[in-house]
Structures are given as C-alpha cells and as structure tokens.
Design goal:
Layout lengths: L1 E10 L2 E7 L3 E5 L6 H11 L16 E9 L3 H6 L10 E8 L4 E10 L15 H5 L15 H14 L4 E5 L17 E5 L16 H16 L1 H15 L16 H13 L16 H7 L4 E3 L3 E3 L5 H28 L11 E6 L7 H15 L4 E5 L14 E5 L8 E4 L8 H12 L11 E5 L2 H14 L6 E5 L6 H10 L4 E6 L8 H17 L5 E6 L3 H5 L9 H9 L7 H11 L1
Parallel strand pairs: 3-12, 3-13, 8-11, 11-12, 15-16, 15-17, 17-18
Antiparallel strand pairs: 1-2, 1-4, 4-5, 5-6, 6-7, 9-10, 13-14
Helix pairs in contact: 12-16, 12-17, 13-14
C-alpha cells in the first residue's frame, strides 16, 4: 500500500497542512521553512522517532499526523479490513499528547442507515423484524437467523446498492491494540542529511545494512544444511553445561568444575537457606554471526567506511538502497507466487531522504535522481527534500511540493499542483523545450523567474542588471527556447504561485511582411493570455533586445557579440532599455 494523503496538525512549525502524495515526492523550499519537519512528522507516524514536548506547535496540547493509504494488496485488505472503505482505502491518525503519551486510531466507514450498521446486527435476528428491512432478500429463507447472517446481509446490500456513509474516527485503539507494532504499515528506510555512513552499515537490525544482512542470515537458516547442523551442535554443546538436559533428565556429562562452583557458592549461603543453580543459555548463532561482522571497503586501500570520504560514504549508502530495492522486487515476486502466504504487516516500503545530494558532484546527483525515480517505479514510495535542481524533473511537476513559511504565526504552508497542466501537443512542446535546457528546474527555487525567448536575453539581461546595481541571485532567468514556449512555462509558474516576468520580443521588424506580423501578433496574444496578474507581468522589447541594444543587422541571436557590445567602454545603456531592465528586477 502507498500513502495517498498526509494531514499534519501542530507538528513543530506546521499548524495545519494537507499534502497529496505521488509515488515520488520532492519537497523543496528555503532553509528553515519546514521541509525537514514534514519528513519528521511522517517518521513520527511510522514510529521511527518519538515525539517530545518541543515538537508541539506554539503551546498546543496535542498534535496528530493522519495518513490515508491506497493501493492495498489482498493481505493489507485482510489485515486492515475493519477500516477498509468502499474505495479500498484506509485512514489512520496518530495523536500525541503533552507529557509523552500517544495513540493510533483508524477511521471507520459507517452507513448512515441504522439497519446497515454492524453494531445493530443483533437487533434484527427475529425473522419478522428482518423481513421488514430492505436487506431481507439477502437473508436465508429458512432456519434460524443468526447475527452473522444479518452482518453478511448488510455487506451484500452495501455492495449492491448506493449507500450513504459517515466517515468517523473510532473511539477505541487501532486494531484494538494498545500499542501498534512498528512496521505494521511497512518498512521505512530513512537517510538524514548529516549522518555517519557507518550507521547505515552496522549489523544492527535498525540499520539499512542490518535489515538486508538479517535477510541473508534468515535465508541461510532456512536453506543451508551445514548452517542448521552447526546451530544444532552449538545448542547441544551448551546444553551439556546445565544440570538437566532439554528433556528434563539429569545431565551426567556436566563438567565437574561447574558443579563444584555451585556447591562452593551454596556453602556461603547456607545460613540463608539458598541454593545456586548456574544455567548456561545457548547463544543465538544468528546474533553471534551478525555481531561479529564488519564491513570493509577497498578503493585501493582496505579500510572501514569511517575512513573514506563523505562522497564515497554517501554513494555506498545509495548503493545499499538499490540493493534493498532489488531484494524487495524478488520478495514481492515470491509473495505473488505464494497465494497462501498471509501477512500481518504490510510489505510496503518507504524511502525517506533528507538532502541526498550532499557530497555528490552534479553528475552523481543526476545519476542518483534516475535511481530514485526507478526506485519509485518499483512499487516503493520515495520522499525527499532537496536544494538541488538536479533532483527535480519539471515534467514530473505533480511530484513537486514547494514548502514556504512566510511567518511563524501562519506556520509552514505548501504549494503543489496535481492536475493536468498540458494536453496534446502542448505537453510534447513543453517536454521538448525542457530537454533543450534541463537546468530550468532551478525555477522552483527562485523567488522570481524571468522567462525569456533565447540565449542572448539570458546572458545580456543579468549583465545589464549588474551594471545598474540591481542584480539579484534569487531572480532566475529561464531560456524558454522560443516565444511560443513562454506560455507553457507561465502556466507552470501560475500553478505553483511563483512570481514571474514574461520578457518577449514584439517582432515587428521593418522588413517583415503582413503574414509575419500576424504570426508575431498571434504569439504575443498567446503570451499575454497566459499571464496571471496575481503572479506575473510582461515586458516587451521593440522589436527585440538586439535592436534595443543598437546592434547592427546580421548579429541576431549571437550572445557573445551582444556581450562584447554592452561590455565596450563606449556603450551607453538606452533609457528605454534601462527602464525595462529595472522593471524586470524590481
């Protein structure tokens, strides 16, 4: 099963927040705006971290994180059948209280009609009463009517008719359990931003390597005859050290030294009427094997992981994640082949990563992103927060969640768009425009975006802004590739509430005929029609930036020529162009 929606209340900087989830979620935003708080709230829900009083937002007495799960398999539906909705989803809330207590409660879909509510089934077991109910066609025609007959009839009626439901949080504990077992919703692999990679490669079962290594040991225990024989011999050896054997009989082969040791201790305690019995418990050989394993890395020099560079440590961690993913695929394939195999916990897997780009060079970041996308397409869910544009794919805009915090009083908010931005040829055009310059993902990190037609605009405008002393790094210029692509980017920026300026050429050059002018006017109308005044505006060059710079004919679309021109000591910035540059950066 997978997370479909998360609702967070009073967790750290978050007052109230509702987030729609995809198979891959990328949380971006400025520092200290709440990205890590979103991830930590999810870790709290899964039981990976414990809450503290400082986690409560501004004096709140309770907080909660609520998860809506979808895509349940048959075992999930069986485990959580009490909470299964008519759309095969479940919704669970984890609430924490000041002082340390917490509980899980599920939502139950309860029919509005009383005769369909399971808790009332016992009231309808008399045939004359049952016969008067709309569900009577689903009740056995003869024999005594049992409560279970009514419950089955209620389910059949609900299945075959349109029924109105109330969706309510249960009063009792989730699944009737005082404490929900960690892992019941699936396995969680968390890689924080700053972490010693040796923690991932310890043999403790809580680590990523430990989880994987344990599966190897378990497999050996099940299939390796020599391993099983060794475990049996070890158990027999330690059993010889005790007074009685496994069958409760006196152990005649016990070493005399242990018997003498017990007797000497007993003499010292004779006045207390106490006896000493030394019992030797056989160790679990699996635990011994795990505890005495160490991981070494040989990159020309054989050392432990701690002595390697941060980049290699990080790469090893992500290599481990890929191995875990491959193993999960095999296990799921085995589960699918074994229909009789039941589970009491979900086999879902969630990978949660905080700034995974740290210590990785740009090419490695892009390779990592491809691995994470592949991971999310293999029935896993991947959640990450990042400051790297290499870990964002504009084409997958529904996975992008921008995190903002304008004030402490308002708390952390998000902006995401899960609808359909493009259809037909416009989607194809946008994807092609994106592939011309994949670095355009940077626009999601900008405080303001400037959409321009081509490379000359992108290179000259910032240089002119610097000469005027108004250049700002948080303003990102995006080369859209053409005037016709600007509306596509404007549509994207409107959807994510990102401020922008559409800068384009009027294209009314003197040499153009009427047909060319009509095309230019059509393209201009398309740009203007897409601008949302709440977030964007337009600035128009007459007829293009080269003409406004005073470049001679024959030097169009040549960024180097334009840069040389404006860098010349004799260049004077025209007043009209200066006004437009200031308008772009204001």
């Amino acid at each position: 099963m997978k997370i479909k929606k998360i609702i967070i209340s009073n967790w750290r900087s978050i007052k109230e927040l509702e987030i729609d989830f995809e198979d891959m979620m990328v949380f971006i935003g400025q520092n200290n705006h709440g990205k890590s708080n979103i991830l930590s709230s999810i870790l709290f829900f899964f039981g990976e971290i414990k809450h503290q009083d400082l986690d409560f937002n501004h004096g709140a007495q309770e907080l909660y994180v609520e998860a809506l799960f979808t895509d349940l398999d048959d075992d999930d539906k069986s485990t959580f059948k009490k909470y299964l909705t008519s759309t095969d989803e479940i919704r669970v809330r984890k609430t924490a209280y000041i002082g340390g207590n917490f509980d899980y409660k599920g939502y139950i879909e309860n029919p509005v009609e009383e005769f369909l509510q399971e808790q009332n089934a016992g009231s309808y077991t008399k045939r004359e009463i049952a016969a008067s109910l709309p569900l009577h066609p689903y009740i056995p025609d003869a024999g005594r009517i049992l409560k279970q007959n009514i419950i089955d009839a209620q389910k059949d009626y609900i299945k075959n008719n349109d029924v109105e439901f109330n969706y309510e949080l249960e009063q009792t504990n989730f699944l009737g359990l005082k404490s929900v077992a960690k892992g019941i919703f699936g396995d969680v692999y968390f890689i924080p931003a700053i972490k010693d990679a040796t923690e991932d490669f310890t043999t403790k079962e809580a680590s990523a390597f430990g989880k994987l290594y344990s599966s190897v040991i378990n497999s050996m225990s099940e299939s390796n005859d020599d391993w099983r024989e060794t475990k049996g011999k070890l158990s027999t050896l330690f059993g010889m050290l005790n007074k009685v054997d496994a069958n409760g009989n006196a152990n005649e082969n016990r070493p005399q030294e242990l018997t003498v040791f017990e007797e000497e201790l007993g003499k010292e305690l004779i006045h207390w009427g106490a006896e000493i019995d030394v019992e030797v418990i056989p160790p679990n050989i699996d635990d011994v094997f795990r505890a005495n394993t160490q991981v070494w890395v040989n990159d020309g020099v054989r050392t432990d992981i701690r002595r390697k560079g941060h980049g290699l440590q990080r790469a090893l961690t992500f290599a481990l994640i890929n191995v875990v993913s491959d193993q999960l695929k095999r296990l799921r394939a085995q589960d699918a082949d074994d229909e009789a195999k039941g589970r009491s916990a979900s086999n879902s897997t969630y990978f949660i990563l905080e700034e995974p780009e740290l210590y990785l060079h740009p090419q490695a970041q892009r390779a990592l992103f491809d691995s994470l996308v592949s991971l999310s397409e293999s029935k896993n869910q991947v959640l990450l927060c990042t400051h790297a544009s290499a870990l964002i794919d504009v084409e997958k805009y529904s996975s992008i969640c921008i995190v903002k915090k304008d004030s402490d009083a308002e708390g952390t908010k998000i902006c995401q768009f899960t609808g359909e931005l493009f259809a037909g040829n416009s989607k194809k055009d946008f994807n092609l425009a994106y592939w011309l310059n994949p670095d355009r993902s940077e626009l999601f990190f900008a405080k303001k975006v400037v959409l321009v037609e081509g490379p000359t605009d992108k290179t000259v405008i910032p240089l002119l802004a610097k000469s005027l002393g108004i250049f700002r790094y948080e303003v990102t210029l995006v080369d859209c590739g053409s005037k016709t692509a600007i509306p596509l980017y404007a549509r994207l920026l409107n959807s994510f509430s990102i401020p922008y300026v559409s800068v384009y050429d009027q294209d009314h050059q003197a040499h153009k005929n009427q047909q060319a002018l009509d095309v230019a006017n059509r393209d201009t109308a398309l740009v203007e029609a897409e601008i949302n005044a709440d977030f964007g505006k337009s600035i128009v060059f007459v007829n293009d930036i080269e003409e406004e710079l005073g470049l001679p004919d024959g030097n169009k679309s040549k960024p180097y020529v334009a840069l040389s021109h404006v860098s010349d000591e004799g260049f004077t910035l025209p007043q009209q162009l200066e006004s437009k540059i200031r308008g772009i950066y204001e």
